[in-house]
Specification:
Elements lengths: L29 H22 L5 E3 L8 H4 L5 H6 L5 E2 L5 E2 L2 E6 L7 E2 L2 E2 L10 E2 L10 E7 L2 E8 L2 H8 L6
Parallel strand pairs: 1-4, 4-9
Antiparallel strand pairs: 2-3, 5-8, 6-7, 8-9
Length: 172
């Protein structure tokens, strides 16, 4: 029995994905796409409010993302064209990169876990929440650093949480 089950597709070359290890996710309609992207953006904004407070961050287009397998093989021009293209010189003469972010479904790109400590904690035996107020596990992430400073953040998402966002749209 050799029927094609048509579960996995191949990304069109016109999308110019930088990595062979970044999956393409597609939905049936524009409403689902918008809901998923709005959710991801909202979650990323919440993540950065906690982690970086008021620092400005910019998303990197999904097809431009790379994984740890690509990192050492990719040409250096990738970093200049996608991460450092908007370097600014600070008044003290130092260069500052605008922080970028992208999503990942790869745990290897997100070895760090952002957790919330209960506001009731007094420092002894802190109550570390395994889940946020919405019952979701805390957000995992990873970084690409230059001189010990993150210039890019990978924010980990699961396919399940994205499906949870689009499933209610089926009835509308």
């Amino acid at each position: 029995m050799n029927q094609e089950i048509n579960i996995i597709g191949i990304c069109p070359e016109t999308l110019l994905f930088q990595s062979s290890y970044v999956p393409l996710i597609s939905f049936k309609n524009e409403d689902q796409k918008k809901a998923a992207e709005d959710y991801i953006t909202r979650e990323a904004n919440n993540f950065f409010k906690i982690l970086l407070k008021a620092q400005e961050v910019k998303p990197l287009a999904y097809p431009l993302l790379i994984t740890e397998l690509d990192f050492k093989k990719i040409d250096m021009s990738y970093f200049y064209e996608n991460i450092f293209y908007d370097l600014e010189r600070k008044p003290d003469g130092k260069l500052e990169a605008k922080i970028k972010w992208g999503i990942t479904f790869d745990l290897k790109c997100a070895p760090i876990e952002l957790i919330y400590v209960s506001s009731e904690s007094r420092g002894f035996d802190p109550k570390i929440a395994e889940k946020n107020g919405k019952g979701r596990l805390q957000r995992r992430y990873g970084t690409i650093d230059i001189n010990g400073k993150p210039v890019f953040y990978y924010i980990y998402f699961t396919l399940q949480e994205i499906l949870d966002v689009i499933k209610p749209l089926a009835n509308s």
